[in-house]
Design brief:
Largest sheet: none
Distance between the termini: 86 Å
Number of strands: 0
Strand content: under 5%
Number of helices: 4
Order of helices and strands: HHHH
Radius of gyration: 36 Å
């Protein structure tokens, strides 16, 4: 006795084989169509280089901006060593507190649209841009 294969199962097997062939053909076609990628040609500049400065002159020129100072590329470089604020701590804190509402509005869901609209309404004499209607909605 031999085992009988159900027709739906056989059809599914054939459809799978056909689909695999189509996939393989699509991959082969895409590979052929892609062709070769040429990044660049191998042009070599054969013009001889003639320097106008010596090696020591170039090194001295590069070191000139950092004479007596630490290079900004050095791990020891601290850009705040010479910083002096013109504001007191209390002034900075007051400025921060005054700006909190604006910062919160600009970082809100509407990106500050409602805040800016309220602010524009409160300004009586404001500069108008060309093309801006007088009673914008």
């Amino acid at each position: 006795m031999h085992r009988q294969v159900h027709r739906p199962m056989l059809e599914t097997l054939w459809i799978g084989i056909i689909m695999n062939r189509k996939l393989v053909l699509a991959i082969v076609a895409a590979t052929i169509a892609a062709g070769n990628a040429f990044a660049d040609d191998d042009t070599i500049d054969t013009t001889p280089f003639v320097s106008t400065k010596s090696r020591a002159e170039v090194q001295a020129e590069l070191a000139r901006p950092y004479q007596g100072a630490v290079s900004p590329w050095s791990p020891q470089y601290n850009q705040l060593t010479e910083f002096k604020s013109r504001l007191t701590r209390a002034q900075v804190q007051a400025e921060y507190i005054a700006a909190r509402e604006e910062v919160a509005a600009m970082n809100g869901e509407d990106s500050g649209s409602a805040y800016l609209a309220r602010r524009m309404e409160s300004q009586v004499n404001r500069t108008r841009l060309a093309g801006q209607p007088l009673n914008a909605q």
